[in-house]
């Protein structure tokens, strides 16, 4: 029997959106899953208030309270994956606590899982609340690191992980702690692909993305911020693969002032700085 979780990290900064998130999860057409909530920074009284809301849902829920650990953004997400591993889930569908989702998302991901048991992760379309696509095009399959090396289109709000994949071992999860990446989803899926994990696009379902300047991406393009993010990202991955050592060298050789004057936006996150065709 397949064991599925819909997982997220809950945190105070997204409190005003939490009910919308929960309602979106509760409206799923396939309700055979657990809602797994990892508490980042709510205190005990605030968590009791949230639990009252959870009791009105039609889906089962579990809460992992890690608030006392005072972890980084990356650290909380790693704990979420560890918890899912410990609880024996086959498929973990991910979603940010300030976003909402198509009501068929769980159903579509389960079907994709059964058709692609060898696949390490899945991803779906991302749209704004005005129904416009965040990305103009999405590749149907990711089998090599070049697809993710220059930019990112697989986020923690629009993806799922096959916890039974040969890539997602306990050793792999432990190794994620070696890096405190400022963009953890990009680091996570890059690591999976570097370990020969394959990603597959899930058709006909969506994540509705709420973007603001509180997001790492932000609402406006910032080449200098992209440069700093990529420098950390490439430095982390250079420890794992020589391809990233070359990318880091190329990045450090660029003239950031010229890039600021002539951005080359491709439509994906962190895509203004391109070092390869």
UniProtKB/TrEMBL annotation:
Protein's name in the database: Glycosyl transferase family 2
Domain Glycosyltransferase 2-like as annotated: residue spans: 11-115
InterPro entries in UniProt: Glyco_trans_2-like, Nucleotide-diphossugar_trans
GO molecular function: transferase activity
Keywords: Transferase
